[in-house]
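Summary: Need help interpreting a holo structure output

Steps to reproduce:
1. Submit the protein chain below together with the SMILES for zinc ion.
2. Request a joint structure prediction with the ligand placed.
3. Inspect the structure token block that comes back.

Expected: a single structure record containing both the chain and the bound molecule.
Actual: see attached output.

Input attached:
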Amino acid sequence: MEQLREFAEKYGFSEWVIISSFISMTLMCIFIVVLIVKILEPKYKMYKQDMFHGMLWKWKYKGERIIDLWCYCPTCKSMLHVDDENCKATSTLGDKTTFFICDTCNEREIGRIKGGDRRYALKVVIRAILAKIRLNTFDIYEYK
Ligand SMILES: [Zn+2]
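--- attached output ---
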């Protein structure tokens, strides 16, 4: 602090000016670091929704992993509910189907994924998302 006072006297600044400019420099550095991290972040991290099987799907990322994946009605944007009851009744994979229904649109069927129950359906969509990321064919502005 003594040196700071000497410096301040020598150049005619008040200590307060030196301290506040030091703080604003620090904030500026933090801001630049945050900006660089944002720029370096892979572009696919902005790809968080897309249409698959006639439904709007939204998700988030945790590291490289896709989390919170769920489907929405393309018309009214409500969350869809799934009906995969038939999957319990049959053991033939080809007969298993997961139906996606919008309660708001008169319980209308929005889409279906054949081959398994809801867990299977989510995996199918995750595979489709990852394929688009890998092939770089996704569009982050398509369904805004
Ligand atoms: Zn709807």
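--- end attachment ---

Reviewer comment: The chain has a mean pLDDT of 90. Residues 73, 75-76, 78, 102, 104-105 surround zinc ion (CB under 6 Å).
Status: needs-info
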